[in-house]
Amino acid sequence: MVVFPVRQRMGCEVMRVGLFVILLLMVTWVNADEDVYPEVKVADPYIELHTGPGAGYPIFNVVDRGDFVEVIKRKTDWFKVRTAKGKTGWVSRTQMEKTLTPSGEVTEVADAGFGDFSKRRWEMGLVGGTFNSAPVLTVYGAYAMSANLSAEISVSQVTGDFSSSDLVNFNLLSQPFSKWRYSPFFTLGVGQITTSPSVTLIQAQDSQDLIAHMGTGIKIYLTRRFIFRAEYKNYVGFTSDDDNKEFEEWKAGFAFFF
Amino acid sequence: MEGRLRILFLTIILQGMCMLLISGMAWSADAVVSRDDNAAQQQVIQPQIERRTIDIDTIDTEDFEVAIFAGLLSVEDFGTNMVVGARVAYHVTEDVFFEAAYAKTDTSETSYERLSGGAPLLTDSERELTYYNASIGYNLLLGEAFMGKGWAFNTALYVIGGVGITSFADDDRFTVNFGAGYRFLATDWLAIHLDVRDHIFDIDLLGNEKTAHNLELTGGFSVFF
Fold this sequence. Notes:
The structure holds 2 protein chains of 2 kinds.
Chain A: H1 6-31, E1 39-41, E2 46-50, E3 59-64, E4 68-75, E5 78-83, E6 88-92, H2 93-96, H3 114-117, E7 122-131, E8 134-144, E9 149-159, E10 163-174, E11 182-197, E12 207-223, E13 226-238, E14 245-257
Chain B: H1 2-42, E1 60-61, E2 64-74, E3 80-91, E4 96-106, H2 111-116, E5 128-147, E6 151-168, E7 171-185, E8 190-203, E9 210-224
Antiparallel strand pairs in B: 2-3, 2-9, 3-4, 4-5, 5-6, 6-7, 7-8, 8-9
């Protein structure tokens, strides 16, 4: 039984801790480049690697049939791949769709296409136009409860010459032919309009009214997740005066679905 | 003496075990790679291997862009001041992208207020201008920029236009904006922007209603994710 003096014991501790730390670092270093990227096999005679994610960028390398490439990331319609020799370049989606997975199946590039348009659940968009000849901008969100019926909520801002208004609307939207590329729709809803007269007018007060509207429009599927939407709405404002106000709104804009 | 020898032996054994562990891990990694190559070659001969499906959905898609920018906004009659804002963009294709922006600036006094010596037209809180807009951009000229001998960066010159609302002097004004910009991609996910825009809205604070053109020059950073 040997008793070590204090200095020697501390030396042992330091060495043991140091060894442990080095071991840990080496373990993590060995496992560092284990990021697994999916691999695909080239089935065409060759695929072309561009220097950047665009059709105009020059082709600096080709990968022959039968070789595997790792797919690292994607930007719009371009995939960044790395060859077995370590060269990194961008491949277009049309060429990626002709490659094969390691099990021999054709690579399916998951992308929202027209088919998903009719299966969509959520939609968000921005439309603008005129509201009784004053400019209006609307942001809306919609949820498709079924293939033909969806519920929407929208917030609009009207910037007129003498007043500006904020509208909040809830409406139901019915699309009888939701699977068509050019799909017409009808809307019916209620909301609230808050009108604030312009600052340069004296003695002006904000007013809030209940409004109801009905409208019609068309949704056109464009590309990927985007649709173009144009609509007309006719509003009736229930005011405390004897006459009800009537507003006409024409709008168009873009939306995306997911 | 005896104690030191024991320590020496213990450390040698420990080091040996560590080496075995490390080389064991490296060897197993190699084995996985070589097993895959063999499997690919044997596909024609033995169709009963386990299928390894790749999930293209797990590929990282970098279409969204978040940016902050700062620069100068010249508000007609109200001086040129620093503007700070943020934008979010979504790239649909290599050519088209959508963008939503929000920015704020503090305007200064008009020359009328300074010269006439009368009461100021606007209070300090009314002088603050904020705008938010949504625009569509088109990458007109994609290209590469070269720095020195060994560096090449992807760049894009784009034109952009959109609509929005400007909140100034307690009023909201419908605004149209259009302009052009230059995007310099330092890496795949980091870009530097230089943007020139004209914001057009109608204003009637100084008597008659007129169309104001407010030029903006900004630079910013954006991150793709």
